[in-house]
Design goal:
6-stranded antiparallel beta sheet, 401 residues, Immunoglobulin-like, 12 helices, Serine Threonine Protein Phosphatase 5, Tetratricopeptide repeat, 3-stranded mixed beta sheet, 54% helix, elongated, 12% strand, single chain, alpha+beta
Length: 401
């Protein structure tokens, strides 16, 4: 921010010069006018002295005329080059008062209407966070600066969940749903946060949220996991096994959460058998995967407007789903043109995979500040099936708005 304020100060000095230079020139002109008035007074005094000497008979008429002419020549020589007197209607105090009020008023208007907070956020996000607390503070400031950003609210809610702040997360997910719509993933995240905020007490509200999410997407992983937890806590062990088996079928083979989920299924099975029940195992559906191959390039007219070190974010997001990217890759302008693959292995979160959503959109964004959510130029594809196998072409050709 130091260079920003230095530039602002330089512009302020330039603006003040337009006000102060006329004042200084006016003072110089005033001094010239004062000198002229003194010379005129001396001339009049000299003429009066000559007239007195003529009246006493000391000077003749010719000598009188010669003396008067000499005094006039001296007056003209002293006043030569002096600009005509200017009449000032504004007065001296007004420019000085304006010189004080203009910067004060400009600073006040900028602090009220300006975007100094967003400039600072852009600088911060260009650097890697030092800790989780640092990341949380950045996201909180970003949400405060852009309260209508569904992406900012969503990621801050996820961060609060990681910090065991479910009540705060639930409020943010509710706001995200209001902005982005009642998407299954968002409903599941909201229900999960609310469940832990209510001390694991199931309620009709939670049931309605999970029912709505699974009705729109029967494979919505957060709702499946939450319903399994609620069923286990309510000693409905077979329901817990069924929900967790459905969730297990959605996870990739190398997912780190599979072991914990299988452990939960095993504990639920043991408790079910201990209470005299019998485990009814449903055959697990084979996990499917999705991979999109896309070639990314810059439009010819933009190549002179970007820099080789500018970041290029390439990601796929659900057409009807959460605002978070499903898969993402990061390059630089110097790498373009480039061909990348976006698949389930590139998922930002285990429950957000390409194969979980029928339609996706490919997006490539150039961001000089290194922000994946905002930049200078962007290219977007038409909606396409996540199961598409044909290579796709994506051109960055439009201003990012």
């Amino acid at each position: 921010m130091i260079d920003f304020w230095l530039a602002a100060g330089l512009l302020l000095l330039v603006a003040l010069s337009f006000l102060l230079i006329p004042v200084l020139r006016g003072r110089r002109a005033q001094r010239e006018e004062d000198r002229t008035a003194l010379n005129v007074a001396l001339y009049q005094e000299r003429v009066a002295e000559l007239q007195g000497q003529q009246a006493e008979g000391v000077l003749s008429s010719d000598q009188m005329d010669s003396g008067r002419a000499e005094a006039a020549r001296e007056l003209l020589a002293d006043t030569e080059g002096v600009a005509p007197a200017r009449v000032s209607r504004l007065g001296k105090p007004l420019p000085l008062l304006a010189a004080i009020l203009v910067p004060v008023l400009g600073l006040g208007l900028y602090l009220h209407f300006g975007a100094v907070d967003k400039v600072e956020l852009t600088r911060e996000f260009a650097q890697a966070p030092q800790s989780m607390e640092d990341m949380t503070q950045r996201l909180e400031r970003a949400v405060a600066a852009q309260p209508d950003s569904a992406e900012g609210l969503y990621f801050l809610g996820r961060t609060y969940m990681a910090q065991d702040r479910p009540a705060d997360a639930a409020k943010l997910f509710e706001r995200t749903v209001a902005l982005a719509g009642r998407q299954p993933e968002l409903l599941g995240q909201w229900a999960q946060a609310q469940y832990f905020a209510d001390n694991k007490q199931w309620s009709p509200k939670l049931q309605a949220l999970t029912d709505e999410a699974l009705k729109a997407d029967p494979k919505e992983v957060t709702s499946l996991g939450l319903l399994g937890i609620a069923a286990f806590e309510g000693e409905r062990y077979q329901d817990a096994i069924d929900y967790w088996n459905r969730l297990l079928a959605q996870l990739p083979p190398d997912d780190s959460s599979r072991a914990a989920l299988q452990g939960g299924i095993a504990r639920a099975s043991e408790k079910l058998v201990a209470t005299g029940g019998k485990v009814a195992q449903a055959p697990a559906a084979p996990a499917k995967s999705a991979v999109l191959k896309v070639r990314v390039d810059l439009a010819p007219e933009l190549k002179a407007k970007v820099q080789p070190g500018d970041s290029v974010f390439i990601f796929a997001r659900a057409v009807s789903g959460p605002p978070a990217p499903l898969a993402a890759k990061r390059l630089t302008v110097a790498d373009l043109p480039a061909t990348v693959e976006l698949g389930d292995a590139d998922a930002m979160m285990p429950q957000l995979k390409l194969s979980n959503f029928p339609e996706v959109q490919l997006v490539a964004r150039v961001s000089r500040a290194g922000q994946p959510t905002a930049g200078e130029w962007v290219g977007r594809s038409q909606p396409l099936a996540s199961s598409t196998t044909a290579p796709q072409q994506l051109t960055i050709d439009s201003p990012d708005q």
